[in-house]
Structures are given as C-alpha cells and as structure tokens.
C-alpha cells in the first residue's frame, strides 16, 4: 500500500467513525467531528458555522487559492441490510467499505491528506446538510462572496461532470366539498377527483417532454411520491394531498417548469407549497466556462448526469463549478457502501496536482 493511500485511509477511518446520519440532522458545532477537522487542518484559517437544524459548515483556507473544494460529510441513514458495522471502515481486497465511504467521505479523506501533504494555498468547504435538508451551508457560503471556482466532490469516477438535472418538489392540498357519494356533484366536488385530474394532466405533460434531451438524459423525470385523502367510498372527499417532484434537464428554468405543472390544476382547487429546490447545472451561464476549467485542470469531461449536486448552488451564484470525485454513484446510498482503493489513490493524486497548481 502506498504512503498516500495509507494517509487517505487513516482519515477515512476516522470520518466513517463519526455518526453523521441525516436524518436525524442532530449535528451541532460541538460534535467531535469538528474537533477532528480542526486538528487535521492545522495551519488553516478555520470557521465553523452552525446554522441550526443540523446545518454546520467548516470552511478552511490556507493562503489565497483560486478555487474551493466542497464535500458534504452527512450521510444517508444506515439501513438494516448492512452486513458490516457501517461506522467501522473495512478494507477488503480492493475496496473500502463504510457508511459514506463513497458519498462522499472518501473524497473528504483525500482532501485532508492533501492538506497535510502540501503547503500550497487551499480552501475546503465541508458541510452537513446535503442528504436531507435545505443545503443551507452552501447557500449561506456563496451569499455576498465574490464568485470563484468550485469543485464539488461527489462520486463521478474521477471525471468532470459539468451538467446535471435540477430538482424541485412540491406538496399540494386539494379541496373539495364533503357530502354523500350518491349526489352527482361528487364527480366535481371530490378533492381526490380534482387531484386525480391534475395528476393525469401532469403525467401527460411529462410524456410530451420525453422528446427533449441533453446527452442521454431525456424529459423532466417526474415522480408522484404520495397521494392521500378522503375517508371512505360513500363520502365525498373534502381534502386530499399529493407530494411530487420533477428533475428538469440541464439548461432548464427549474421553477418555471414546476410552475407550468402546478398550473395544470383546476383554478381554486389546490394550494401548492414548494419543498426542495435546486437549479440545474450549469445554472445561469453556459457550459463553456466549466469546460475551460476542466481542461485547465486536466480533467476528462463526463456526460451529463441525472442526480443533483450542490455544484448548482455555486453555479447559480455565478461561480464556475464542476463535479469531480472518487467512486461511482451506483455505490452511493446502498447497504455495504464502498469505494475502490484505486479510485481513492487516484483522487488524492488528482487533488494534490490541482492544489499545487496554485502553489
């Protein structure tokens, strides 16, 4: 095992050992994780910011770097299907197993190793509210800060992802007029009927979008998550709720697409509430700046991906942002999550080379 890989695994062992499951969003600035980060980043100027509700960020900067590396340290909850202790890093063969090893504590471990390997200028933004929450840490970071360059370290197998879908979710409360189901007005007054008519139009709209494509991505990726309401078959439902979301293509105005779907409901029959919103990548500029950055950093450009990342938050704020990290998204959010040792070693070397470009 190389010295670099051993250094990365030492950090990854510690990071996996910290319980950062989200939910329950229980982290505060007093969590032992942040003490470890302070020690690991000795020599950096460090700001720990607790925004409440489990949103805690650690911004560490040394010198005047040209770009910031971003990793989230929260993980999805460990399921009962794990066959190993999710909080103990297990190195078996060519893989390192542990909760968050792929998504994305592996990348964070690489960056901590790099921080201790070189004295070149470097900046890291480590956050805890990406997996469930408002992504408040990144949104707060870019407010009032001059745009620069951002590398978001989600798993991309070491390639540079420059474009991905946006995301928006909604809940809708449909109204009706209660009564006996024998009355003909049930056809129109039933809240579940109004919801169903809207859902039919919404799915038809989604089908018309399948002809639109960016790379291998097609359509708006709409999903109805939950319907509920009504009492029983002989009562007209006075209320009904739906929870749904969509993921428009790169380049789309995410809120405009969402509003178009909301507007398919009958007037006066529903109150919509926006849930999570994330712009597509790139957000407010063309892809050319990110392409130039990837070329400058010697990164291979990847095809657009369907999953959302916080790179879109940076992009929406005017930053040139791309996604590049070790591991494969196919291993993220799985029982017995793993990342390959070869990818960790390659990522550490890649990040070191990029950091030392500013040295």
CATH topology of the largest domain: Aminopeptidase
Please state the second-level CATH architecture of the largest domain.
3-Layer(aba) Sandwich
CATH superfamily of the largest domain: Zn peptidases
Count of structural domains: 2
Q: Give the % helix.
A: 25-40%
Mean pLDDT: 96
Class by alpha and beta content: alpha+beta
From the spread of the alpha carbons, the general shape counts as: elongated
- Given the structure, what is the number of helices? 10
Poorly predicted runs? none
The overall strand count is: 17
Write up what this structure looks like.
- The protein is built from ten helices and 17 strands.
- It has a six-stranded mixed β-sheet with strand order 1-2-6-3-7-16.
- The chain is elongated and about 75 Å long.
- The chain folds into two domains: 238 residues, Aminopeptidase (3-Layer(aba) Sandwich); 112 residues, Alpha-Beta Plaits, CATH 3.30.70.360.
- It is α+β, with helices and mostly antiparallel strands and 359 residues long.
- The longest helix has 18 residues.
- The chain starts with a helix and ends with a helix.
